[in-house]
Write a structure and sequence with these properties.
- The protein has about 180 residues and is an all-alpha fold.
- Helices cover about 70% and strands about 0% of the residues.
């Protein structure tokens, strides 16, 4: 292994540790706002009109769906371009969105989180769980989403550690 390769592996390992620490910190303090939460909020809000063509329920669900679809598309993009390390790093974003979704879902009954918009605002998770007659299961549903977030984040960390040892370049030099 050349010293150039060793440096590349070390850089990816350091990236993995730094990114992992950040997202594990987010798991410990899910109610703290972050810059990435702002990006996620924009993605969430974009989902409402995109899915609005499928009716009111899908319009409301569309915010949450978009929060999962957008980062999953990036994971898939990197994975199918054989950039496994990049895919595993972006997988942290999926876990982060699941964390934010769990916070929003947990708020479905008490509705204390500030909502975006003017006038009459709908709390997505209150609406969806009410429509599905599952509002009484809010705590269990939010916990399941939180467990999914933790699972995805741990998986992203393990995969990032594994792929940090590969010779894959972080930024490919052979762009086609």
């Amino acid at each position: 292994m050349s010293s150039k390769s060793l440096l590349k592996v070390n850089a990816k390992f350091v990236v993995t540790i730094v990114v992992g620490l950040y997202f594990f910190w987010r798991l410990l303090f899910p109610y703290q706002w972050s810059l990435l939460s702002g990006v996620d909020l924009l993605v969430h809000e974009a989902g409402h009109p995109l899915f609005g063509i499928f009716g009111e329920f899908m319009s409301i669900l569309g915010g949450t769906l978009m929060q999962l679809i957008m980062p999953a598309l990036f994971v898939g993009y990197f994975f199918f371009r054989d950039q496994k390390f990049s895919a595993s790093i972006v997988l942290f974003w999926v876990g982060h969105n699941l964390l934010n979704i769990s916070v929003y879902a947990a708020d479905a009954v008490v509705m204390q989180l500030p909502l975006v918009g003017n006038g009459d605002r709908i709390h997505d998770w209150n609406y969806m769980l009410s429509e599905l007659q599952l509002l009484h299961q809010t705590g269990k549903i939010a916990l399941l989403i939180r467990i999914s977030s933790i699972t995805v984040t741990i998986t992203a960390f393990i995969l990032s550690l594994i792929f940090s040892q590969s010779d894959e370049e972080i930024v490919p030099t052979n762009l086609e």
